[in-house]
Write a structure and sequence with these properties.
Length: 332
């Protein structure tokens, strides 16, 4: 019997139809409604050859509009899907690539289901010549059905590669190989003959985490201050005026910022706001320097700024203690 897999479609390029087969970039202006899960499966019937795929109704919007409310809805929906069908092999979530890595990491930290969950998207719309939507979907289903996928947390599958939600990031605007894990590489590959793994992530992830967003109305506010030559702290002051509970500094590599911005961040710490020092470089750890400790900043480890923001928001939902938050960044 084929494994039963639930497919949730949240929108994005994988659910888009363009002006024609050669439209690979201007499809958002075509005016076609985004396909729902059933519509995507109808367009790529090959998906049903590798699994018994159950389409799940969900609101479809461009991924630029997805954040905490969607993450919470997905966590609750995944709970319900597994409760309703204990024999469910896993869940595939179709998602736009703009914020796919952020939803993947948020779910990696908050899902409470034990079955594999894979996020999948595409760089070309479903209507395009040589679209990657169909093969990415088929491969995501194959990865979910693979027994070795259990216990790895949330996974991301595109371009025949399997990535850990914590490590992966979008690195190119248009290229099919856009999703990369700069420091560690892919976990494995979805080849035509087999799903193959070569490493396992060690940091803690779903469902064994301390974060539960199912009863929350919102996450604590965390903003990102991007370092650049001459930054004077204006952004930091605006974040404080807006009620930020935490600020992530997307600093110069390996983890610093311009003098004016630094003064603003030190002022934020003095006001009880947690500051996490990340790097805009996109690769590498922020070292635990003496100055980092003197400033009262928490190091982001090797998380990029957008993922450090998610982890800090979740950490602030359980504690305000900077020492415990530092331990959280060493754990996840």
């Amino acid at each position: 019997m084929k494994p039963r897999i639930a497919f949730i479609a949240t929108g994005g390029t994988i659910a888009s139809l363009g002006h024609g087969a050669l439209d690979t970039y201007d499809y958002a202006s075509a005016g076609h409604p985004l396909l729902d899960a059933a519509g995507i499966l109808d367009r790529f019937p090959e998906a049903q050859t590798v699994a018994d795929v159950r389409p799940v109704a969900f609101s479809a919007v461009p991924s630029t509009g997805l954040h905490f409310p969607t993450w919470k809805s997905l966590v609750v929906l995944c709970d319900q899907l597994v409760a309703d069908d204990p024999g469910l092999a896993g869940i595939v979530i179709g998602h736009g690539t703009a914020t796919l890595e952020e939803t993947a990491y948020a779910l990696h930290l908050t899902l409470k289901v034990a079955v594999p969950v894979v996020l999948v998207g595409s760089q070309r719309p479903a209507s395009a010549l040589s679209t990657d939507a169909g093969i990415n979907l088929v491969n995501a289903l194959r990865v979910v059905a693979e027994p070795a996928s259990r216990g790895l947390g949330v996974l991301v599958v595109l371009n025949d590669e399997i990535h850990a939600a914590r490590d992966v990031t979008k690195t190119s605007t248009n290229r099919l190989q856009t999703f990369r894990a700069p420091d560690f590489g892919a976990l494995g590959h979805a080849d035509g003959d087999a799903i193959t793994y070569y490493r396992r992530p060690l940091r803690r992830g779903a469902p064994q985490t301390e974060f539960d967003i199912r009863g929350l109305e919102a996450l604590p506010r965390v903003d990102i201050s991007y370092a650049y030559a001459g930054a004077d702290g204006t952004a930091v002051r605006a974040f404080l005026e807006s009620g930020a509970d935490g600020i992530v500094s997307a600093g110069f590599a390996p983890g610093s910022c311009a003098p004016g911005e630094l003064e603003g961040l030190k002022h934020a710490v003095a006001k009880g706001v947690v500051v996490v020092q990340s790097s805009r470089a996109g690769s590498g750890r922020v070292p635990r320097t003496t100055k980092l400790g003197q400033h009262g900043f928490v190091g982001a480890d090797n998380l990029n700024p957008q993922k450090a923001r998610i982890l800090l928001s979740l950490a602030l939902s359980v504690t305000r203690d900077p020492a415990r938050i530092a331990a959280i960044f060493s754990t996840y």
